[in-house]
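ok so for the tutorial part 2 we go from a plain amino acid sequence to predicted structure tokens. step 1 is just haveing the sequence, like this:
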Amino acid sequence: MSDVAVAAILATTILLASTISVEIGFSVALIELALGVVVGNAFHLSTPDWLSFVGSFAGIVLTFLAGAEVDVPQFKREWKASLILGGVSFAGPFVVTGLFAHYALGWNRQQAEIAGIALSTTSLAIVYAVLVETGLNRTLVGKRLMSATFVTDFGTAAALSILFIKPNLWIVPFVLASAALIFALPRIAPFFFKRYGNRVIEPEIKLVFASIFLLIWLGDRAHSHAVLPAFILGLALSSHYQEHRKEQERLRVVAFAFLTPFFFMKGGLNVSLGAVWANVGLLGLLFAAKIVPKLFGVYPLARRYAAPHGVFTTLLMSTGLTFGTISSLYGLNAGIINKTQFSLLITVVVLSAIIPTAIAQRFFQPEAASEAESPVDSARAGPAEGAPSGSTSG
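step 2 — the prediction. this is what the tokens look like for a chain of 394 residues:
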């Protein structure tokens, strides 16, 4: 099938996903993932090169936007809660999945470590998409959730780098360029946006995209990845975007209208229903190895630090997509895991993006209007403003 034909099928599916999302009230990211699975298996579509490129770029843009949403003063007040939630969210599945893969499935040590890393993640892309679509990104529960998610993904990226990735000399310009952008962009942004902003040609968006492409290129040359520098760059610009909401909204429109649908569709296309059916028992065990430690590890902490929305927080922190895919693909390309193991891990990653999100949105989603952060809430400190540590969640 030609690239144009694939693009036409995917564009039609993306439009359908948007209408379904509006009608049933579920995140469009969730619908795009599910329809990607259906379309990929119905038309036997493989992922073309252009989709891999656009999807990878979209994932980094989503990560940048998520960083820009973090309330830095609130994060500083509650950094312990974010570290505890995010740390447990990473460590529990990493240990349980790794041990299960090694001792129960007979995978060697490196294969088990790849499995543990791939299934330890929380999908920053899914969490951010759900929070933005529901308006919860502007609430305290949403800000806490994104902060904890970043900590989880930082642990995943650190584990992959320490255990496997061997950077080359390009790591020096990659680190220097990342640091330069993170330091300089917030300082030149006010002048740049005042001089060139508010135009139909959107120079401010092009500046962000150029910076992200530079990070992606240097990260690739250094055998590293641009996800974490992109998140920190967004974090560095968060104060600027709080003062210039229109600029952030225009960037978000570009991302959600064109880029991110291809990112989520790409994730769905990686799932083979035939492989799922042939290995349904093993998939169920691997899925449980990811989800059960998340539920039992995160939920007691979420009751304290995210009350009264502990269940919603726990379920969204049980999702996986971006880093899970990156880790699995690294293991395959490096010859650590075989194609069957890769298919199993990718399928579990995508299922973990769909199932917990659907349950969270259907049964436990807070109302953004009732969760609007008041000035009093904003000034408070502590784990769960106004809620005792043992309060009922969900």
